[in-house]
TrEMBL record:
It comes from the Bacteria. The lineage of its organism: Bacteria, Pseudomonadati, Thermodesulfobacteriota, Desulfuromonadia, Desulfuromonadales. One of its GO terms (molecular function) is glycosyltransferase activity. Keywords: Transferase. Residues 4-80 form the Polymerase/histidinol phosphatase N-terminal domain. This is Glycosyltransferase involved in cell wall bisynthesis. InterPro entries: Glyco_trans_1 (IPR001296), Glyco_trans_4-like_N (IPR028098), Glycosyltransferase_grp1 (IPR050194), Pol/His_phosphatase_N (IPR003141), Pol/histidinol_Pase-like (IPR016195). The keyword Ribosomal protein does not apply. The keyword Protein transport does not apply. Pfam families: Glyco_transf_4, Glycos_transf_1.
């Protein structure tokens, strides 16, 4: 039994497909052919070949030098003449004359296939689902199935997404499938049984790291016997598959090799110098190196230096072939180093913007370039891993034999999880209920250790690299997540859909990563930040800036989920993409939020009023105070309780200092809210900026009649006259009259109050069950409607990456 790595590149492959290396001006590989031979043999390969892009020199060199172990090979770039789509075909056992003819015929894949068939040359479609020049479509894959019988089922530079789906589909083909394809494309298939496809494996190594880690197994002892087994399709792929960390590792290695061959800014950089220790295990530390290392070790407060020391010292203790350990070391150290650069930048910007120090701002931006340089290859590799996600999924849906689709894996991103607001409470409820019901829904947030209390155990926590407070939202900490740690966690989870609740740092980074992942992104319009800013700040320029940013952010998602029908129309008028909006119905744990008593009120009892929510001017609390003051004059002893925190708390407390029946509870733990609702009789919520009103939902579930304004989302929760009242937002008299009606009802045993409360509870039970909502969320899609919305976002992603690369290179 022979093992061969059938896909390896040498220094003669000189044009990289990876754009980061293109920007550097590097070649695709710097590995010597003889190095390939030695490494392959050392790692257990019985036979060796080299498959450079449209070059045969390296493989012929090895055949001449090691004829008993080597055979020729080439990775030929072929074209579909109808649209110039590129594909790569691995060809073996060819001589110079055949190679010369292949070079001409490869411009037309149909002529190339016929020539290979005529010459009986073993050939394999390499990484069939990878689009070499961005033109690969489903019809090309179908044509390849007809044209060839051997496919690379395990490419060592691709992820399981590419390899596993392709292998499943190919091994499940039937004679009927081939007949359908032949009628559709009018292409004569290869061989007597073209539905029987053979799979091979190769590392597709360019950096010299993964040679022999992925291979093909066949019954053979000599090169000729192995080539015959390829012709017969008697092969089995085996070995490692790649992830974005492995690809990044290879990119860094090629960049390092490039720096050793050409004098560039990268060659003289500290990063290149450090790479020498990471990638060249035989390099010894000289006196100068040891002095530099000791100097860095002595600076304990310099996080960048300490990570560099860790990278150098630990890398030299690892086994040369322990690739996974080296990948983990590289990723952890570079993540921390990159974070430190960005942390310094953000700290500098925060200080210098306040002081309007333009020179320092520019210097701070310049100092962050090393952090960008370190991060970009990871993003590039991440996108590379998922570049054809939509195509692969369509390919499997059409030709795969999967009987029942699997439930979705959902990642829900938020910038607020532990604060007392509707978004946080909703997400904590979703996370905990998903755990109980076994749904694969994970909340992701950037949290400090102090913030990681009482959160769902399945929460994916990203460490923050910087925190700040927004003006007028001083009680709300905004965390900037560690970029590369977040990237790794999302890659590991590999969600089918991404939900984004907030347009903050976590949300914007999630949007970028989601685009690279190629998955559907759903944004949720929880909060109208524009209206909030208008009420709080009263600065039109700031409100306009917030509106422009919010509109841009939410217009980037594939689907915008909006809590109420009114807000869908409102956002349409404000320029949001209307046709991609859907109603987002939120739910409640009705077994937790429930009435604890339906006792008849005493005739002398006054209804106790309650407000729960953020204490902020945009919640229309000055209006509520006016209503209460009128009621206080009419009904001495009537009480009003405020539960919550916010920037307007102190001012409101000052206004109520003389009102003994007004209480301020501050922040109330989520678990204590049901008891709080049940200790009161009427819920009053005059806000005009809430897109939904989670507190209204909670109060209604506990059997409290609710009074809400006729502007915003809460009015769609309350059944006017049935479970409460929807009242004019600026009409104090209307609010006073309705509450007065409830006061009179209490004096008559509270029959109306009880009727409204029971109707409120029944309405919530019938319409706001999280169990039903979550089941619908994770249910697999049966159509491809969501896929067509994503293509327009790819150009913006490319522009972002291109801008970053230009900053790095220049």
């Amino acid at each position: 039994m022979a093992q061969v790595d059938l896909h390896v590149h040498s220094k003669y492959s000189n044009h990289p497909s990876e754009w980061f290396l293109q920007r550097l001006g590097a070649s695709e590989s710097y590995t010597e052919p003889e190095t390939i031979y030695k490494l392959a043999r050392k790692r257990g390969m019985d036979l060796v070949t080299v498959t450079d892009h449209n070059r045969i020199k390296a493989s012929l060199e090895l055949v001449k030098k090691h004829p008993q172990h080597c055979f020729s090979g080439v990775e030929s770039t072929a074209y579909f003449p109808e649209d110039n789509c590129k594909v790569h075909i691995l060809i073996y056992g060819l001589d110079r004359e055949q190679f010369s003819k292949i070079q001409k015929k490869r411009l037309n894949i149909y002529k190339l296939r016929d020539y290979l068939k005529q010459q009986d040359l073993p050939c394999i479609v390499a990484h069939a689902t990878y689009s070499v020049n961005g033109k690969l479509r489903l019809e090309h894959l179908e044509k390849l199935i007809l044209l060839f019988n051997n496919f690379e089922g395990r490419n060592g530079s691709r992820s399981t997404l590419h390899n596993d789906v392709l292998s499943r589909v190919l091994l499940g083909l039937t004679a009927a499938d081939i007949e359908r394809l032949q009628r559709k494309h009018l292409i004569e298939p290869w061989g007597a049984e073209p539905w029987k496809k053979a799979l091979t494996g190769g590392s597709d190594d360019h950096a010299g790291f993964f040679i022999g880690k992925t291979s093909t197994q066949a019954e053979a002892k000599t090169p000729d016997e192995f080539l015959q087994q390829l012709r017969l399709g008697q092969t089995q792929p085996q070995g490692r598959q790649n992830d974005f960390q492995g690809l990044t590792f290879a990119i860094y290695k090629i960049a390092f090799d490039f720096s050793q061959h050409k004098s560039t800014a990268f060659a003289s950089s500290t990063i290149s110098d450090l790479s020498g220790y990471l990638f060249n295990e035989n390099k010894k530390l000289g006196i100068r190196d040891r002095l530099r290392l000791n100097k860095m070790k002595s600076q304990k407060n310099n996080a960048i230096y300490q990570n560099i020391v860790k990278l150098i010292e630990t890398s030299r203790t690892l086994n040369e072939d322990d690739i996974d350990a080296r990948l983990e070391l590289l990723y952890d150290c570079i993540s921390d180093i990159s974070d430190q650069y960005f942390r310094s930048l953000l700290t500098s910007l925060n200080t210098n913007i306040e002081e309007m120090d333009i020179i320092q701002i520019i210097q701070g931006l310049s100092s962050s370039i090393p952090g960008i340089f370190l991060s970009i290859p990871f993003f590039s590799a991440f996108k590379h891993m998922f570049g054809e996600r939509e195509l692969i999924q369509s390919f499997e849906r059409k030709w795969g034999k999967q009987v029942s689709p699997q439930p979705k894996r959902i990642l829900w991103l938020t910038d607020t999880l532990t604060d007392l607001n509707g978004v946080s409470m909703t997400l904590q409820t979703v996370g905990k209920l998903a755990e109980e019901k076994g749904h694969d829904i994970h909340i992701m947030a950037s949290l400090s250790p102090e913030q990681q209390t009482d959160i769902p155990s399945s929460t994916l926590v990203v460490p923050p690299l910087y925190s700040f407070q927004l003006p007028h939202y001083e009680d709300l900490d905004i965390n900037v997540p560690s970029v590369l740690h977040m990237l790794k966690q999302i890659y590991t989870f590999n969600p089918d859909e991404i939900y984004i609740s907030t347009p903050g740092p976590v949300g914007i980074l999630g949007l970028l990563i989601g685009r690279m992942l190629g998955t559907e992104i759903k944004g949720i319009y929880h909060t109208d930040f524009t209206m909030e800013s208008e009420a709080i700040i009263a600065e039109p320029a700031i409100s306009n800036m917030i509106e422009q940013y919010s509109r841009w952010f939410f217009n980037q998602v594939d689907t915008l989920l909006v809590p109420s029908s009114e807000y869908i129309q409102l956002l349409k008028q404000r320029g949001y993409r209307y046709r991609h909006m859907e109603r987002f119905k939120r739910g409640l744990r009705t077994e937790h939020f429930k009435p604890q008593r339906w006792s008849q009120p005493a005739s002398s009892q006054r209804p106790k009023l309650l407000y729960v929510g953020r204490i902020s001017k945009d919640k229309n609390l000055d209006f509520l105070l006016q209503v209460y003051l009128r009621l206080h004059d009419l009904y001495p002893g009537i009480s009003l309780t405020f539960a919550g925190e916010g920037p307007y708390l102190q001012s409101l407390q000052d206004q109520c200092r003389h009102l003994a029946e007004v209480r301020f509870l501050g922040r109330v733990a989520y678990a204590d809210l049901p008891q709080l609702y049940n200790q009161h009789d009427l819920f009053v919520f005059p806000s005009v900026t809430d897109t939904f009103g989670m507190a209204v939902l909670e109060a209604q579930a506990c059997g409290l009649p609710a009074l809400v304004s006729n502007v915003g989302g809460p009015k769609e929760i309350v059944v006017d006259g049935g479970s409460g009242y929807v009242l004019p937002v600026d009409d104090v008299q209307s609010w006073v009259e309705r509450i007065s009606l409830m006061v009179e009802d209490f004096s008559l045993a509270g029959g109306l109050w009880q009727k409204l409360g029971q109707s409120a509870r029944d309405h919530i039970l019938s319409n706001y069950s999280w169990d039903v909502i979550l089941k619908q969320m994770v249910a697999p899609d049966h159509q491809d409607d969501c896929l067509q919305h994503r293509h327009r976002h790819q150009s913006s992603l490319k522009r972002i990456l291109k801008l970053a690369s230009n900053m790095m290179v220049h």
